[in-house]
Write a structure and sequence with these properties.
single chain; alpha+beta; disordered N terminus
């Protein structure tokens, strides 16, 4: 059992490091959204599905699942090959789950704010 203990001890920091890296990715997307650096757009057939171009031809997509129970974040490269898939209902880390939910709310609220601002600008001279 000694090897089992060593393996579980070694695997934990690796998994924790990966979770921290994923949280950092999600938080950078959220900051970019809040700072106006990422231009999200509504897309797809789902009510709450948004996509944004990233550096190097990469794309990010964030969506609420149809049942409203989770948030999905995917990233793909310039060739459309998916490089990241995160589902808040399937991640083990509470911090990562919270980061995903915060990203979705930031994107949704930012787009709602832009839509309201555009509507107000359209009728400001009436």
């Amino acid at each position: 059992m000694r090897d089992g203990v060593v393996l579980s001890f070694i695997a934990y920091p690796i998994m924790e490091t990966q979770n921290l890296q994923l949280v950092e990715i999600v938080n950078r997307l959220k900051r970019g959204t809040q700072d106006g650096k990422l231009l999200w757009e509504h897309m797809g057939t789902l009510e709450h599905e948004y996509s944004a171009p990233l550096d190097g031809g990469n794309r990010a997509l964030v969506a609420r699942t149809p049942n409203g129970q989770s948030v999905i974040l995917t990233m793909s490269n310039a060739h459309g090959v998916q490089s990241l898939y995160l589902d808040s209902a399937r991640v083990a880390s509470d911090i990562l789950r919270l980061a995903l939910l915060q990203l979705f709310v930031a994107v949704r609220d930012t787009l709602a704010h832009h839509a309201a601002s555009q509507a107000l600008d359209a009728v400001k001279d009436l």
